[in-house]
Write a structure and sequence with these properties.
The chain is mainly α. It is built from eight helices and two strands, in the order ααββαααααα. The chain has one domain: Sufe protein. Chain: A (Alpha-Beta Complex), CATH 3.90.1010. The chain is globular and about 40 Å long.
């Protein structure tokens, strides 16, 4: 997975439809999530599209998630959220301002409110898992 900084650099260089294409490309680059993991328990609430996020067990105290969506652009947004937290120490992610890390993408002004309404729920889900893993 590309770093969030690398994605932001490319994203800010692009405009309009090119940004959509980048988001779709990012979604395609996500690690595949097996269908049996797409359950009600892994479904992110509040998203206009179906979004599933599944935390993989970690023995090193780092986070790793599988995720998927049934909508291409939403899947790209999921990829952005994961780029901010993937394979980082749980304690770091639990204390991070993930919304601020995503601020350069200005998603609220770039995309419809339907596409971004679930982002806070995705962030909360990964941070809640990070806090449990970190014991905070």
């Amino acid at each position: 997975m590309r770093s969030l900084d690398d994605i932001a650099e490319e994203y800010l260089f692009l405009e309009g439809d090119e940004r959509y294409r980048l988001l779709i490309e990012l979604g395609r680059e996500l690690e595949p999530m097996p269908d049996p993991l797409k359950t009600d328990a892994t479904l992110v609430r509040g998203c206009s599209a179906s979004v599933w996020v599944y935390p993989l067990p970690s023995t090193r105290g780092t986070l790793h998630f599988l995720a998927d969506s049934n909508a291409a652009i939403t899947k790209g947004i999921v990829a952005l959220v994961l780029a901010a937290v993937q394979d980082k120490p749980a304690a770091e992610v639990a204390g991070a301002d993930v919304a601020a890390l995503l601020a350069p993408f200005d998603l609220k002004n770039q995309l419809s409110s339907n596409r971004t309404q679930g982002v806070p729920n995705m962030i909360a889900l990964v941070q809640d898992h990070a806090a449990r893993l970190a014991g905070t």
